[in-house]
Amino acid sequence: MTRLAHRKDVLWVAALVHRLSGLALAIFLPLHFLALGLAIRGEARLETFLRWSDAPLVKLAEGGLVFLLLLHMLGGLRLLVLENLDWRNGQKQLATIAAAVSAVIAFIFLARVF
Amino acid sequence: MSARAEARLWLVQRASAAVLALCVAVHLATMIVAVRGGLSAADLLGRTRGSMLWASFYGVFVIAVAIHAAIGVRNVLAEWSRLNERHSGILATIFGSCLLVLGLRAVAAVVL
């Protein structure tokens, strides 16, 4: 067993994904708030931004953000359950299900937005 | 930082996470329903302007996310960067404060 063998563990990957998705969301949030804040200068400013966001690449990026948000939320819920309910069984399966559910909902979002 | 203060931060991050889980679920469900056929400013603002319910909901959402993200960023900086705990805390507090101001400004923009 090497020193880095734990990095192949599903739960280690889940912890890394939780942290990286949180960082990505922390970077995105100020931009999201600035975009919504355009409405202060009138509906037309917000509408101009929303028409720009109709571009396919922007919609794909939005789908990616929905995926990250769900990954972070479901990963966080798993941690809350683990810490508060002393529920130790099936954590690897729960982490995998969280990723799968995130992907499915992100696809539903993309299907509706396109 | 004392163990007691660390424990308090841990508790606040978990409490804010519980609030955020509910807020994110409502936000995502609203988005998935509203996004069909593309978003328009008129639709979005028509739903939120003058609504005390959306103002309260998004107000709580922004406060919880500013607290949660600031504590998360502090932990990442303290563990992954060369900054010490004190400097990580200062930077994270500045980040959280900016998030709070920008977020509340965005809420005001869509509900007032």
Give a nutshell description of this structure.
The complex is a heterodimer of chains A (114) and B (112). Chain A has 114 residues and is mainly α.
The description of the largest β-sheet of chain B is: none
CATH homologous superfamily (4th level) name of chain A? Fumarate reductase/succinate dehydrogenase, transmembrane subunit
Mean pLDDT across every amino acid position of chain A: 91
* Low-confidence residue ranges of chain A: none
Distance between the termini of chain B: 41 Å
| Count of DSSP-assigned helices of chain B | 4
How many helices of chain A does DSSP assign? 4
CATH level 1 name of chain B: Mainly Alpha
Order of helices and strands of chain A, N to C?
HHHH
**Which CATH architecture of chain B?**
Up-down Bundle
Helix content of chain A: over 70%
* Oligomeric status: heterodimer
Share in β-strands of chain B = under 5%
Uncertain ranges of chain B? none
Under CATH, the topology of chain A is which?
A: 3 helical TM bundles of succinate and fumarate reductases
